[in-house]
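Help! Submission page says 'invalid entity' but I think these are all valid:
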Amino acid sequence: MTVAQETGELRNPGLPGSEEFDTLIYGSPPLAYPATLSQYVIYNTPDPAYLTGRINVSAFANLGAATPWPFTNTNVPLNGHVCIPRGRGPFPLAVFAHGNHNPFENSTPGYLYLCQLLASHGIIAATIDVNFLNGSNFGENDARAIVHLEHLKQFRTWNNTSGHPLHGKVDLNRILIVGHSRGGEAVGHASFFNRLAAIGPVLLDGSAGLGPYRFALSAAAAIAPTDRQFVPVTGPTVVPDSYFIIHGSKDSDVFTFEGYHTYERAHAVDLANPTVSDGKFKAMLWVHKANHNQFNSVWAPETAPGVAMPRPSQEQIAKVHLGALALAVLLDRHEYFAVLHDHAVATAWDPAGTELVSQYQDPQRIFVQHNQEGLGPLVVSLPVQGTVAADGVVATRQLTALVGGAATTTITARLAWNAAGSRLLLQVDPATLPAERYKVLALRVGQSNEAANTANRDQDFTLEVSSGSRTAVFPASSLHRLLFPDPPPFGPAKIVMQTLRLPVARLVECGVDPSDLRAIALVFDRRLSGVVYTGDLQFTN
Amino acid sequence: MPLPEPPKVAAVEVIAAQPTETDRAAVAHMGAAEPKAVYVVKVKLKAKPPVTSMAWALYVNDELVSKYWEYADGIYFTVSDPQFFTRHRGKQLRFSQNGTDFFDTGVKLAAAPSVAEDSATRLPLQADVLK
């Protein structure tokens, strides 16, 4: 199916749906925010039907002592805004959490524009108050995760409380958690904590007020998240649920695309069982010209005027792509996975001229090459058997983080050439590669800003796929643009790979037999020189 | 735009304070004896950096301070194991954003004040230390 056909069948998920909804405030009275925290007085008088308790987060966090919160870390409130569709339901639930910001400014309402969108589509959508963890603090993202999970628990309680307006109205089998910035890191921890019985000395069985959780999380979504500011004793958090991340190239707060490390750790290949999948997907959207703060409608932009795209454009992108995610995973509108598979499906809905890079990994896949065996020469990855030959291409594996920031543990391949016609050839034993079981050949590849690449010009090469005597040839550019990196606000440019998805059906149309697939080649015949990085090559759905 | 600069430290002060219930539970979970005191390490900053999501991780020598918090004049962290001060005696406080590139503050960790065996209840509350 062509992109035009796909968009023709889908309605823009960033446009409001037809459901009517009510917006109200819930909270934990008695609260008496002082005049210096005037933006929080709205929580002093929540809707009488939506009163919440307090929780003790002292095992995870102190509150900044420079802000006069009218409570301590042993009794923080569960405050939030929620948009509730009218009607009987049950409705899926989406809960948004902000990140770190000046604690004297209430960050919570900044996602109401997304909550209202989701509610109009029949999703209960809340944005929660985690402001009491904001300030010049560090390492508190475990506490943010606990607060997020406790808000989910509050909705479960209301759903289970006879006579409450939300009784029986929340579909607890369809929950999406979304976090921005440090709140984005925290949704990964929340996904991890959700399955635990205890964190250190803190039992999550309800005996001390926290937990139990065990929610059926449909996905965790992170907007411009940090990574590893909190690290569990078991090591950096590996998100166990389906994971979506969106980040802007002009982000001048989280300027090293930290969440890319979270993305790489999630649902990575298990070297001991490379064909085993945990059944979860992950998807990524890299937005040229988006900054950090404009994903929150309250926060002033952190970039100088003219550096980032206008705020309405950035909010439109958030609505389209988070809307597509929510419709796909919460409302079983599986056709919206097309937007996650390939951002080009949303071209007509995104602001004109927006440059995006996207990645998608499906739960169903077999790696032909994942590069995680080590820093030695490139190989075909087991259980697929075959050989790799480089002709005129300098092919090396490397551990340098493509997006800057902290060290990475994910290996990528660097392919450099200086003469047109250079090629990297993977020859495979067709008996070990059941390509016919899959719908798509997927390759993650991106160009750098090294001198071999022409500034501001798309990179390109030819993808050749052969079975027996038949070879199908596709310019990479026919599958997707390989954008030149957008200049960053600080530090080195980020190399963000694009997932090229070549339908197996197109191979078949060209006479290639996927059950007898013998070779895949990257032929560098469309530019005289260049450097690209590849992540993995897989057959997938 | 220039890269963000690390905070500049004016002084470091270590104050012994009463452990909280949470401190006692955490120490018990580690299998250690109940602490006589918790040490509040106040790092006074010449100017507080803007509140952002990216953070300057604080290290004492090469040991990451896993959590720190804001107070009126800077940031603080707490230590329940007095051996921390022995281990890092005279060592630099450092900031890093990526765990690879470090910025010395030029300020060394102060020694922990001695705490008498029977003085625990006479120690100030942590909240009072931060006022």
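Support: the input was valid. A stray whitespace character was the problem, and the output above is from the cleaned input. Confidence is low (pLDDT under 50) at residues 1-6 of chain A.
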